[in-house]
Write a structure and sequence with these properties.
Layout: H1 2-12, E1 20-26, E2 29-36, H2 41-45, H3 50-66, E3 69-76
Parallel strand pairs: 2-3
Antiparallel strand pairs: 1-2
Length: 77
């Protein structure tokens, strides 16, 4: 799941070299933390959070296949 979030985020931002994705958690519950440059936060979140919601929806759909629960947190550096 970490790789999926990383690919999506790097495609959206102007500074893909500053994208950091970490994964923590065990078993069936994972938390993926996405960090981007401050100037790219708006691109990752989108108007009214639509892009962030879409990222979470794609990750949720992919995680259903493995029967796990994944939360995506978007953090600034």
């Amino acid at each position: 799941m970490r790789e999926l979030v990383e690919v999506i985020a790097k495609a959206l931002v102007d500074h893909p070299e500053e994208v950091e994705v970490t994964q923590r958690g065990e078993g069936r519950n994972l938390v993926i933390e996405l960090r981007v440059a401050p100037s790219d936060m708006g691109k990752v979140i989108g108007k009214q959070g639509r892009i962030a919601k879409s990222i979470r929806s794609v990750v949720k759909a992919a995680s259903m296949k493995d029967n796990i629960r994944v939360d995506v947190d978007i953090l600034d550096k």
